[in-house]
Amino acid sequence: MSQSRTKSGYIIAAAFIGPGTVTTASLAGAQFGFHLVWALVFSVLATIVLQDMAVRLGFATGKGMSEALHHQFRLPWIKYPLVLLVVGAIGVGNAAYESGNLTGAALGLNNIVALGIGPWGGVMGGLAAILLWRGKYQLIENVLVALVAIMALVFVVTFAVSEPDWSGMLSQITDPVINTESLTTILALIGTTIVPYNLFLHASLIARQQQEHSQPASEYRRQSGIAIGLGGLITLVIMATAMQTFFGQADALNAGNLPAQLAPLLGPYAEVFFAMGMFAAGLTSAITAPLAAAYAVCGALNKPTDLTSVWFRAVWGIVLVAGVVATLTGTKPLYAILFAQAANGILLPIIALLLLYMMNTHPQLGALRNRLTANVLGASVVALIVGLTYQKLFA
């Protein structure tokens, strides 16, 4: 099996392990210790379930999710509202999400060279634009996987040598917390893991890879589960490093002391290594958010999804420019990132319901159509997220 056939699942892991994940998991660990691990475990399992549906949809139809919706719904009164939803929720939404990616990465780099969040955001946006403009999928894929590996190595090695309090972590895992104070963080953990645009991105990547390198659906599904599980493990490690440093301590986690999580291993070099980790995480998400938006919007509008087409480049260019501009507004980065993740958690049920409908009705699915177990799991995910969101907004 060639390498080009084995990385689509890891691209999805790369997409959700961004500055938002680092920030949200760090805040969760610092403020609530391991009492919110249940929310992370739920998020990872839900992501595996939903992304598996996206894999099967892309494999069976040879199209991305928005393309499949476009062709399945023929009646104008259904079709056009769905197009508006995809363009608004994924296209416009990803532009806002992009600002969090660039801001988070700029936050880390600014701790080394104080150019300011705005200028660093512009640099990051420029790097992402160069890579996307090249239109070389294999290059994009390799860069994303390498960047995530760099970030993961920093946190995993740090946690391994930081003398973790295993008994304390275990006692908190078995004492889960859900209350008014924790709901925003819970929704943010869900939103940073079960990223709505990844459903569109994954189906498109599978359809593309299946056209170039045919292989069994089971291989894509297996790799998706493994990659997402590893991404969840990395998120757990980030939460644990913040817990070790900040939970129950007088010092509170803020934008200035995020690098302190790495101090047990790296000492005075912690700031430099954390900046590199945030740079790697930020660039992965700064690439995948515009990429996913381009696949989703072009598919919904029935436009070419080739990486070098004018429409495709226009969509990702608009998303990227909007993200760069947003970094110049001076919004407090830590809370902007947390809010973006919580907004993702609110958007997710709508996208998940559309996917569930597709997985039960699309005529091309055949044996890959949802069975009872997948429907129950998918409906349970939607119900819990809706319940948490309702509690947050109206309780």
Walk me through the topology.
Blueprint: H1 8-16, H2 19-32, H3 37-61, H4 65-72, H5 76-110, H6 117-134, H7 137-160, H8 166-173, H9 183-193, H10 196-212, H11 217-246, H12 263-266, H13 270-300, H14 310-326, H15 333-361, H16 372-394
Helix pairs in contact: 1-7, 1-10, 1-11, 1-13, 2-9, 2-11, 2-15, 3-9, 3-10, 3-11, 3-15, 3-16, 4-13, 5-6, 5-13, 5-14, 5-15, 6-13, 6-14, 7-11, 7-13, 9-15, 9-16, 10-13, 13-14, 15-16
Protein name: NRAMP (Natural resistance-associated macrophage protein) metal ion transporters
Organism: Marisediminitalea aggregata
GO biological process, one term: iron ion transmembrane transport
State the main characteristics.
single chain, Amino acid/polyamine transporter I, 77% helix, membrane, cadmium ion transmembrane transporter activity, 395 residues, 16 helices, mainly alpha, transmembrane
